[in-house]
Amino acid sequence: MTEKKDIRSFTIDELKEEIKTELGEKPFRAAQLYQWLHEKMADDFDEMTNLSLSFREKLKERYVLTTLKKLDVKISSIDGTRKYLFGLSDGNVIESVWMKYKYGNSVCISSQAGCRMGCRFCASTLDGLARNLLASEMLEQIYQIQKDTGERVSNIVVMGSGEPMDNYDNLIRFIRLITSKEGLNISQRNITVSTCGIVPGIKKLANEGLALTLALSLHAPDDETRKKLMPIANVYPLSQVIDACHEYFQKTGRRLTFEYSLVKGVNDNLNEAKALTELIRDQHGHVNLIPVNPIKERDYVQSGKKAVEAFRDYLEKHGIQVTIRREMGRDINGACGQLRKSYMESEGEVKA
User: Fold this and answer.
1) Buried b or exposed e, range 143-156, using 16+ CB within 10 angstroms
2) What's the CA gap between 239 and 144, in Å, rounded?
3) Which of 56, 278, 320, 330 has a CA positioned 20 to 30 A from the CA of residue 257?
4) Which residue ranges make up the annotated binding site?
5) From the candidates 25, 95, 140, 272, which is the catalytic residue?
6) 38-76 pLDDT, tens per residue?
């Protein structure tokens, strides 16, 4: 038996061709179907009531309609942030975060189940990489959250579990689908893609003709410190990473964000602030300082408030634009991978 195709990952042009050549249906059916998949965000072919019963039966026979199962949602009593745990069809689990801001609702999505990058301060990577997510599984995180909250998502951050550049083709397909005018039509300018510094991916993304914001997980101003925090630094030295970021700005005109997690006694003193200033002085971007979220498997400790403010003040004094990230969802394990990790541990205990 032929394996069923993942119909939610089809672009509108691919769907038109598929409907015509494989199902023998008229082109306008593709537009109807695409609307059900990406605007009405249908969970089942039977919801598609303006499609004939015979057409729906053909769809069921040949295609899978990817959906995510909501396993858990935790709502912060502090700021209303929602942390979702979703189940995939193969038993893997992923997480997403919904955050409400004055400018609109932002969702942080995962691009992989787990991660193989090994960053020392991140819970996502503790169990390694299970697999890449399909474009449809990335879309579904937004669709399910939008249906659950009843509110439109206006901003997307691909900064949850996983390294987006390690799942490049599905990432680009997802972006083209979510920004499609026939779908949710979210502005490319409202999408941020984070990377730990995979140089070929950054350069490739620069040539896609997209207007995305690129966020570099920097976390240290020199290779020696960065290697302690991020194994990827052993592959791509900072000189190459910064050059790739500059190339991204030159080709897209989009300012970069430099993510910098402050870890007490590791990368948070004024010598590091000075080195960071020298590293990015000529770059077009700003620094996002992040007081690191402690995880029990690591002994890293969040920098104190005075150290964070002193670090910020030094950068500002030397002409670097900087913000301290507002902590969201601290009371519900808001950091990447924490909810998924605790769920997997509890499931393991049950099965044992």
Assistant:
1) bbbbeebeeebebb
2) 40
3) 330
4) 115, 119, 122, 162-163, 194, 217-219, 293
5) 95
6) 999 999 999 999 999 999 999 999 999 999 999 999 999
